[in-house]
């Protein structure tokens, strides 16, 4: 299928359409046998990425989704059956701003009478990140919108970088994290698969409003990630538990962000990324299998990373 222009087809408005999650949502809905019209939101419809999406039949709309721009957000959601909402912490590194923007998006979707709000908040990280997602999720629950939560696992692509894989003097590559080697994380190839889970959440009778989908291809230990990366690429890759100080320095992020990343890993080690929730049920009604870490490794080009 392709994206519909039929006015009777459900309209899905996608926040972050030019990004990894939103782009994946558009791709997955375009592959559906159900008919959807899609409106993609971006701050710049003229950029090449936005224009590429428009050629698929997506209506690309310019809007700056900041907290003081609620009216424009509401206008952008007008007529939608479904709104996909994601916030973007990494661009401004400001938690208060992220929470304000997330709440604004929920309120705007409600004001526009959207029937289903799909929210990409990850809940397990909340305790350590002073509730940034809980605030938005709690607000969304209280607001009375029909809410489907599709939580993204750890991106496999976070480790597809020379930055995450340090080359040692002896030519070995180390995957260094501040947790023990048996720490297990759920992993997702976000661009390839995140939308698959959103589609499942929207279309499968097992999910829908009031439910939660945990989007991950598999659960894998950090040591196993390093081992599989080595086996598949034929390079020597080892997992190394680094000290908290080493880890924070290696992130090269501002102190408060490095500290948050460190606390996240400590939290994953102790409580796991999705807490005690099982990821398997969320993979039961997908239209195809999501990629495992090994699948991601095989599909990616490592030549400029493991040189
Ligand atoms: N890395 C991980 O392992 C991981 C795991 C789970 C969740 N997350 C979360 O995922 C979120 C990021 O999602 P992503 O990976 O899809 O991000 P991304 O690829 O960086 O894309 C960000 C999108 O947000 C849009 N955007 C940013 N500011 C905007 C604004 N003011 N108005 C309108 N649009 C705006 C951008 O659109 P334009 O630039 O075109 O305007 C872009 O499409 C973050 O909150 C992150 O914490 C990350
Ligand atoms: C979006 O709004 C923010 C905050 O008002 C501003 O700093 C930024 O320049 C705006 N971006 C665009 C593309 O209008």
Would you give an account of this structure?
The protein is an alpha/beta fold and 307 residues long. The chain is built from 11 helices and 13 strands. The chain has helices at 20-30, 48-54, 70-77, 89-92, 95-111, 132-143, 190-203, 222-233, 244-251, 255-271, 293-299, and strands at 10-14, 36-42, 59-62, 82-85, 116-119, 147-152, 154-155, 165-167, 173-177, 184-188, 212-215, 218-221, 237-241. The strands form 3 sheets. The chain has a 7-stranded parallel beta sheet, sandwiched between helices. The longest helix has 17 residues, at 95-111. The model has no long low-confidence stretch (mean pLDDT 95). The site of NADP nicotinamide-adenine-dinucleotide phosphate (NAP) has 25 residues, from helix 1, strand 2, helix 4 and strand 7.
H/E series: EHEHEHEHHEHEEEEEHEEHEHHH
Determine the oligomeric state from the structure.
Answer: single chain
What compounds are bound to the protein?
NADP nicotinamide-adenine-dinucleotide phosphate, 2-acetamido-2-deoxy-beta-D-glucopyranose
Q: Rg from C-alpha positions?
A: 20 Å
Broad structural category: alpha/beta
Helix percentage range: 25-40%
Strand sequence of the main sheet, in spatial order? 3-2-1-4-5-6-11
Give the strand tally: 13
Overall morphology: globular
């Amino acid at each position: 299928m392709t994206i519909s222009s039929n006015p009777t087809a459900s309209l899905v408005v996608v926040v972050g359409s030019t990004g990894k999650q939103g782009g994946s949502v558009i791709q997955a809905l375009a592959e559906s046998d159900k008919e959807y019209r899609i409106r993609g939101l971006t701050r710049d419809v003229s950029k090449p990425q936005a224009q590429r999406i428009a050629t698929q039949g997506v209506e690309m709309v310019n809007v700056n989704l900041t907290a003081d721009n609620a009216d424009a957000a509401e206008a952008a959601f007008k007529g939608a059956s479904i709104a996909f909402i994601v916030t973007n912490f990494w661009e401004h590194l400001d938690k208060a701003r992220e929470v304000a923007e997330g709440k604004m998006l929920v309120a705007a979707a409600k004001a526009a009478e959207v029937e289903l709000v799909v929210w990409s908040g990850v809940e397990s990280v909340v305790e350590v990140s002073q509730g940034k997602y809980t605030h938005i999720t709690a607000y969304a629950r209280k607001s009375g919108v029909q809410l489907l939560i599709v939580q993204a696992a750890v991106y496999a692509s976070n480790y597809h970088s020379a930055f995450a894989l340090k080359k040692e003097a002896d030519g070995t590559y180390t995957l260094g994290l501040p947790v023990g080697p048996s720490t297990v994380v759920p992993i997702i190839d976000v661009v390839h698969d995140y939308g698959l889970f959103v589609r499942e959440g929207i279309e499968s009778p097992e999910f829908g409003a009031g439910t939660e989908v945990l989007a991950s291809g598999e659960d894998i230990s950090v040591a196993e990630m390093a081992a599989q990366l080595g086996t598949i690429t034929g390079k020597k890759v080892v997992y190394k538990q680094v000290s908290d100080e080493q880890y924070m320095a290696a992130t090269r992020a501002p102190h408060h962000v490095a500290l948050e990343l460190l606390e996240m890993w400590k939290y994953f080690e102790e409580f796991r990324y999705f807490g005690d929730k099982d990821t398997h049920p969320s993979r039961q009604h997908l239209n195809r299998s999501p990629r495992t870490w090994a699948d991601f490794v095989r599909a990616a080009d490592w030549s400029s990373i493991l040189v």
